[in-house]
């Protein structure tokens, strides 16, 4: 186990709704990244937070937003859900930006109907 | 534009055989090349990684071969075991810019008992 936990495990929403996914980083890790993994594909980078500030963003629209808290837990929020948002959402934490291995959580499986 | 291309998409190998997965990249700024292993229902886990200043790295049954001039790298799994059956992702990162991981599309490996 990596020490990175995510909740919930599974989630079903309908198109147009909003969703919040949560991640608890490994102790001492001040950097968290979020990835979207569509079925049968590799994970795609959504954004990264370092010390509570966004530190890079992938090719995702603004309706994907995030927060990182002082205890290094984090949230991924998605507004106006679309069918194509159905995927496994992964968070990964690391202790030193740009230098150490990233540890992935088990993911949240989001289904949008 | 796919920055990391991975092949084959799926692979079946007899127990005890050698599994070989190939990847190619385009961005010469990439300076860290990890391989991840993912089991169903789990997040990706770092298997082995290499930096471009070496041509080969071996850890147990797993070896990365790296060809900087050809911008190619590969994973070799020696004495493949049924427990190795999983999806494998090659990836690349520009650690000087950020530690956003660019993943390949994955290879589903099945080891026949």
Describe the structure.
The complex is a heterodimer of chains A (113) and B (113). Chain A is mostly beta strands and 113 residues long. Helices cover 0% and strands 51% of the residues of chain A. Chain A contains no helices and eleven strands. In chain A, the strands form two sheets. In chain A, strands 2, 4, 5, 6, 9, 10 and 11 form a seven-stranded mixed β-sheet that branches. In chain A, a hairpin with a 2-residue loop joins strand 5 (44-50) and strand 6. Chain A is globular, with a radius of gyration of 13 Å. Chain A starts with a strand and ends with a strand. The model of chain A has no long low-confidence stretch (mean pLDDT 91). Chain B has 113 residues and is mainly beta. Chain B is built from no helices and eleven strands. Chain B has strands at 4-7, 10-14, 19-25, 33-38, 45-50, 56-59, 62-67, 72-77, 86-92, 102-103, 107-112. The radius of gyration of chain B is 13 Å and the shape is globular. Chain B starts with a strand and ends with a strand. The mean pLDDT of chain B is 93. Chains A and B meet through strand 4, strand 5, strand 9 and strand 10 of A and strand 5 and strand 10 of B.
Keywords:
heterodimer, A: 113 residues, mainly beta, 7-stranded mixed β-sheet, globular, B: 113 residues, 5-stranded antiparallel β-sheet
The overall strand count of chain B is 11
Poorly predicted runs of chain B are none
Q: pLDDT average of chain B, as an integer? A: 93
Largest sheet of chain B: 6 strands, mixed
Q: Uncertain spans of chain A, ≥5 residues at pLDDT below 50?
A: none
Q: Which percent bin holds the helix content of chain A?
A: under 10%
Shape of chain A: globular
Radius of gyration of chain B: 13 Å
Share of residues in strands of chain B: over 45%
Largest sheet of chain A: 7 strands, mixed
- Helix fraction of chain B, binned, reads under 10%
Query: What proportion of the residues of chain A form beta strands (DSSP E)?
Result: over 45%
This entry's quaternary arrangement is: heterodimer
Largest interface, with counts of residues having CB < 8 Å to the other chain, equals:
A-B, 28 and 23 residues
Based on CA inertia axes, which overall geometry of chain B fits? globular
Q: Which structural category fits the helices and strands of chain B?
A: mainly beta
What is the count of DSSP helices of chain B, taking H or I runs of 4+ residues?
0
């Amino acid at each position: 186990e990596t020490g990175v936990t995510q909740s919930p495990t599974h989630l079903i929403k309908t198109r147009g709704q909003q969703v919040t996914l949560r991640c608890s980083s490994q102790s001492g890790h001040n950097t968290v990244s979020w990835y979207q993994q569509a079925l049968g594909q590799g994970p795609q980078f959504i954004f990264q937070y370092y010390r509570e500030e966004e530190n890079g963003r992938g090719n995702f629209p603004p309706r994907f937003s995030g927060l990182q808290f002082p205890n290094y837990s984090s949230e991924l929020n998605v507004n106006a859900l679309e069918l194509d948002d159905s995927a496994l959402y992964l968070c990964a934490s690391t202790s030193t930006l740009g230098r150490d291995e990233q540890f992935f959580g088990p993911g949240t499986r989001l289904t949008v109907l | 534009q796919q920055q990391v291309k991975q092949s084959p998409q799926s692979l079946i190998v007899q127990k005890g055989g050698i599994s070989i997965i190939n990847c190619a990249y385009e961005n010469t700024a990439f300076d860290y090349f990890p391989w991840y292993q993912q089991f169903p229902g789990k997040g990706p886990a770092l298997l082995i990684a290499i930096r471009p200043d070496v041509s080969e790295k071996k850890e147990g049954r797993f070896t990365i071969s790296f060809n900087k001039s050809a911008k190619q790298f590969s994973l070799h799994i020696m004495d493949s075991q049924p427990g190795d059956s999983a999806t494998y992702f090659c990836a690349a990162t520009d650690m000087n810019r950020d530690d956003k991981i660019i993943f390949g599309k994955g290879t589903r490996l099945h080891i026949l008992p």
